Amino acid sequence: MVMVQSDMSRTPVNGQIMGTVGEKKPNAQTPETVPQRYDNTTLSTIIRFHKKERMPFLEEALFSLAIQDWHDIEPIIVLQNGTEELRDTVAGIIDRQPWAKAPRHKILSISIPAGMDGRSTLMNYGIKSATGRYLSFLDDDDVVYQRGYATLIKQLIESGRPVAVGGCRTALAQNHNTHWFIQAKEMPYTSWGSTRLDLFRQNFVPIHSYVIDRSRIGEFELRFDDAFPPLEDYDFLLRLCAVFEPDFSQLGTPVCEYRIRLDGSNSIPYSPNASPAAVAAVERARQLIIERKKEITCLITISEAAEFSTLLAERDQLPFVLARHVSRFLRQTRAKTGTFVYRYPWLRTALGRTSRLLLGSKVDKLRNQRF
Hints:
Elements: E1 2-5, E2 10-13, E3 43-49, H1 55-66, E4 73-80, H2 84-95, E5 106-110, H3 119-129, E6 134-137, E7 143-144, H4 148-159, E8 163-176, E9 179-186, H5 196-201, E10 210-213, H6 232-243, E11 247-261, H7 276-295, E12 299-301, H8 302-314, H9 318-343, H10 345-359, H11 361-366
Parallel strand pairs: 1-12, 3-4, 3-6, 4-5, 8-11
Antiparallel strand pairs: 1-2, 6-10, 7-11, 8-9, 8-10
Helix pairs in contact: 6-7, 9-10
């Protein structure tokens, strides 16, 4: 069951999409009813870090924070099993960045048992330590563009929404003589989706492409689930956006960059050389995501309900049936073909154009529907 909200009433509408959405009391989210607990303009940005060998990537990520147009930034670096030497090295990197305003940074070291995926745990410690009204996340090998955070925070202020999402480019990096060079940049995620219902079908919002206004979420708990790595970021978004409607108006504006190394070293579960354990972890997380979608409750707007009804009516049309089989085939072969396709951007573009010609424009809107 989906709850449909208008200005005057809330009316339940029956239907299923990506599982079952059940009726539940919505979390209060209007500005009038949410207590203003964060009386500051600080943006807390949490970065997880676990390998000394990734220090050059971390330095680029921190440099992208230092040159932000939004100057009131609290960098929070959460180290996995960090030593004093590592803490000192990270502190030195922070200090030598060209900050417009010296940041009140924090460096935390969290003990993670051997063999445990500590991604969610590190993020949760960072959230607990954050003091800013605004909250964002940044992986240690990605970057945010100079006007990225200012753009999203401006949108949060103007819209009154708790979450603002911006566009994200993929940057394909090739190693040459121990240095990484960007071969190509694309913006694929905008074709994957543009609405909250699209997000419920498949994640098109990278973890560093949005900012949260914590003064507008009331008592909602911002928490990453330890059971969900490596898809903990998607589970986090599903729970957050089921309660609060995000602002997608800046989705066409690139605010950050998701860097993909063509040797597969930062996309291990999806590379051809992925270990059985890594592949199994992804499959287990996918099953947990499917179950999460069955139990999530969502309050949707009337415009979203109209899109929901259209999707149900169009499910049985031939182009969509064809798209289902294509999507299933691509999912089954993604581990073998992903690296090859990423290496040749022209091939991805050609495949996309061919699909649109063969299956029609409706598939562009519906291709992320799960079956």
